[in-house]
């Protein structure tokens, strides 16, 4: 997969994670709320691995 494709996929995953977080805020069932929050967290982690966070890498040694 190309770098642009990976970045696009990561962006889609982050958008889906945000949708899940919003759904969790609206959920009235505590178990459903937690399930949605967990899924959102997983997607965020996967998006970071797939395409980064969109933030430039910063060398802490500089």
UniProtKB/TrEMBL annotation:
The lineage of its organism: Bacteria, Bacillati, Actinomycetota, Actinomycetes, Kitasatosporales. It comes from the Bacteria. InterPro entries: DUF6381. Pfam families: DUF6381. Residues 16-47 have a biased composition (Basic and acidic residues). Residues 1-62 are annotated as: Disordered. This is Small hydrophilic protein.
